[in-house]
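Project standup — Tuesday

K.O.: blocked on the structure for the chain from last sprint. Re-posting the sequence here as requested.
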Amino acid sequence: MNWDRHTLWNAGWPALSAGAAGVVLSAIVSPGLLIPSCVAVSAVASSVLTAAWVHRGQQEAKARLRHPELSGTHNPGGIFGEVTQAAVVLLRQYESELQRLTTSKGELEISGKLQKKQARRLDAALKAIDQPVVLCDTRDHVLFANPAARQLGIVEDDSVSHSGTFGDLSKLLAFQQLVHDTRTRAVAAPRRTAELNFTVNQQSIPFRTTVTALFDDQNELLGTLAVLSDVRDEKSAKAKHAEFVSSVAHEFKTPMASIRAFLELLIDDDVTEPTEQKELFEKIDYQVDRLNRLVSNLLNLARIETGAVKTSREDCDLNDVVLRAAEVVRPLAEERGQQFVTDLSQLYLPVHVDRDLLGQAIINLLSNAVKYTPESGRVTLRSHMEELEAIITVEDTGYGIPPESLPKIFDRFYRVPEHQHAAKGTGLGLAFVQSIAEDLHNGHIEVESTVGVGSKFSMRIPLGHQDTKRHKKSDANKKSEAKPEAALADA
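H.V.: unblocked you, prediction finished:
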C-alpha cells in the first residue's frame, strides 16, 4: 500500500504532537521518567499509524465496493485487500443474481399475462357455447358453469366458487349421481352418458348428459366435465320418422289390400260376367295408379330434400305459370259447382323458376282447395307484387283447418283428422308444395285458416330475372302495358 507523506501527516500529526509535548513536560518535571515517556510516545505513534492505515483501507474498500471496475487497476495488499477482493466478488455475484431474478420476474410476468389472457379467452369461449357446460373438482364441487348451465338450475347465480356446491340437490340428484359415478369409477369408464330431464320455465326438457373424467399427464384425477345437449329436436325427428314409416306402410297397405281382394275374386272365378270383370280390372288399375303416384311423390320429395332433383329454371312472367295451373284445375271446380275466380296482377312479375315444378305446386294448392270446399263454394287464385317478392295466394271458403293442425299441415303424410272423410289423399301434397317453394326457389309458404270460414295459402317467390339485360314484355291480354321498371317502382 503506497502512503504519501501528506496522507500520513494529516492522519497522525495531532497524536504525535501531543505525545512529544508530553515527553518534554515529563523531562522537565521528572527527569527519571524520560525513558517511559519515550516508550509511550512510540506506542502512540504506532497506534496513530495503524489508525491511519485502517482509515485509508476503509476509504479504498468503499471506493471499490461503489465502483467494482476499479478493482483491477489497484490491488491493495494485506487483509483489507483480501476483504475488498472478496467483497467485489460477492457484489458481482449479487449483481448477476439480481439480473437473473429481474429477468425471471419479467418472464414470469409475461407468462402470467399470457396465461390470464388464455384463461379469459377460454372462459369467454365456454360462456358463448349454447350447450350447458359444467366443470367440477374431485369432490363434485362446481368450479365453472356457463350461462346455459345456470339456466338449468345447476348452480345459483352467485354460488360458483372454489368451494361451490350444486345449486339444489333435491332437484339434481340424478345429475349429481352421474357426476359422482364418473369420478369414482373413472378407471373402469372415464365417460358416462345418460338422458336427464331438467325443468326450465316450468317445462321438462330432456338433455343428453355426457360426463368425462379429467386426468393430467401423470394420470392424476383433476375433476369432471359435463356437457349437456338438448335432444328435443332429435326426439321429435325420431318420432316423425317413426310416424312417416307407419304412414308409408299404411298408404301402401290399403291399395295393396284392395288389389289382392280384387285379384282373389278373379282367380276364384267369383266374377264371371265380362262387365263385372272389367270393373274389377279398372279398380285394380286405379289402385296401381295410386301406388305409382305415392312412390313418385316419395321419390320426388327425397330428391328435393337431398338436392338430387334436376331443375330447369328460366326467366319468365309468373302469371304465365299461374294461368296454366289454373286451367288444369278449373274444370274440376266447375264440375263440383264451385266458383273459380282468378285475380292476377296487371303488372309483369319477373321470376326465375322451374315452370313445371312451380306449376305443379300451384296445382296441388288449387286441388286441395277444390277438394276441401263444399259445392257452391268459391276458390280464388290471386297474384301480386309486394316489395321484392311475387305472391301467389289460393283462398277458399272450405271447411277450414283447426288451430292445433296448422303447425303440422306441411308435414309428410299429415292429414287433418276432421277432413279425412271429405277427400282421399296421401298427405304428401302440401309437403311437396313446401319443398318446391322453399328448397328449390328460396321462397316461403304460409297458411291462415278459420274453421267453418276457409283457408288461405300464400306462396312467396323472389322477384327478378337471372338475365338482367333481358327485355321483358307483358302479355297482350294484360290490361296494363307498364314496363318492368315502372312495375317495380309502383311496388
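K.O.: great, moving the ticket to review. Residues 1-5, 23-31, 33-39, 471-491 have pLDDT under 50 and may be disordered. The chain has eleven helices and twelve strands.
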